[in-house]
Design goal:
single chain, mainly alpha, MetI-like fold, 12 helices, elongated
């Protein structure tokens, strides 16, 4: 591996850039100290909670805005402002309001993933083929029947694609939240490694995030292939 070779030949500073062998050694040390799975578990739990809540809230509001367009017009400016706001700036407020605990991390993640999910799904719903909707109406279908039998099924691919984006945003939000308040988790490992200038620990945390995001992405891709084929 190029990275390892450059490190061993001192072409790059292994103290600053670490190396694959050092990262593997760090993983082994965390495992022996019974810390590895604890940090992975904490981060995964926070990711799945925020992912599930963000998906449900985003989907529900997307359907609500599609069904009642006036609500979209009312809330659109506020959603735009909230979406453009740097979420990390709300971190101190979340800590004061909710405490330095998992609640602040989950809410931080929800602020990032919910609006993105809502907008993605809503854009899919409103772009449903209008001729198909007219066809349903010609058979006297109700709005509820059109929504459940046509609009939502027609946009399953878009909905699942939004879940891919949601899981990425959830991961970003959780790590940002762990930087602020956590006492465990992969974000905590990265922050602690930075504070003690243990850059191998920082790189190990980054590698763990990459592995987790890849695995979760593959799981969603598996469901996408089964439900949209």
């Amino acid at each position: 591996m190029t990275w390892e070779i450059l490190s061993r030949l001192d072409i790059i500073n292994s103290f600053i850039f670490s190396s694959p062998s050092k990262i593997i050694k760090c993983l082994c040390e965390l495992y022996i100290a019974n810390n590895l799975w604890i940090h992975i578990y904490v981060t995964l739990k926070e990711i799945f909670i925020s992912f599930a809540l963000g998906s449900i809230i985003g989907f529900s509001f997307a359907v609500l805005f599609y069904s009642i367009p006036i609500l979209k017009k009312i809330f659109d400016p506020f959603l735009t402002m909230l979406n453009s706001l740097p979420k990390v700036s709300l971190g101190p407020l979340l800590i004061i309001w909710l405490g330095a605990n998992i609640k602040s991390i989950i809410v931080m993640s929800l602020l990032i993933n919910t609006i993105v999910t809502l907008i993605s799904i809503y854009n899919g719903l409103i772009n449903t083929d209008p001729y198909k909707i007219k066809l349903f109406r010609s058979f006297n279908a109700t709005n509820y029947q059109i929504l459940t039998k046509l609009v939502i099924p027609h946009n399953m691919e878009i909905i699942i694609s939004s879940l891919k984006l949601n899981i990425s945003m959830s991961l970003i939000g959780v790590i940002m939240g762990e930087f602020l308040v956590s006492k465990a988790g992969i974000g905590y490992l990265i922050l602690y490694g930075t504070q003690v200038f243990n850059l191998t620990l920082v790189m190990t945390g980054i590698v763990l995030i990459l592995i987790i995001s890849f695995i979760i992405y593959q799981i969603i891709t598996f469901f996408e292939k089964n439900y949209t084929s």
